[in-house]
Amino acid sequence: MEFDLIGANIVLLADKHNISIVSKEWLSQNNIINDEVINFAHLPVASVVETNEYDFFVDERNLRISSKVINKDNLGNLSSMTIKYIKKLPEIPYTALGLNYIYNVKENQKKFKEIFMINDEKLKNVFQNDYIFGGIFKFDFDEYKVNLTLQPKNADEIICDFNFHFVSSNKDEIIKILENYLKTKNKAEKVLGGLIND
Description:
Shape: elongated
Radius of gyration: 19 Å
Strand order of the largest sheet: 2-3-4-5-1-6-9-8-7
């Protein structure tokens, strides 16, 4: 079984982010984004900043920082950029944090059906043909509520989307969680290994 991390982002929820202040200049001046901005839009309802490495999006309820290039440095930078943002805007009423990882798992549907004990013949009768299988798991991990969504891409690949959700209005608690960001990635990979490897 083989799996690759193909997407990662952090979502910081708030009652009201300050969209008007978040511009490409503000992000650069505050050392939140250091690479060259290749695309920027500052609208009344949202601000979007894109570099070669990251996408930065903020609207009233969400700040989402996504890594466009997946590597160890960029994953570490996601959390440090979010921490810098919180420290520059401590007055924002933050409500929750989402740490998200998307994996592409190369494994055939037959193996997935065996893992999850699918009654293949019954489902073929119901759907009157062959089908591909996915699912949703919810579980707790430390202080997180975790959702794992399995979305079939084709007969030989499945997208596994992890959301580690942490609810808090305490900015210091949120920062502490962000300082241990990669433990959630390690948990995601441990779960995938446990599900798929014999």
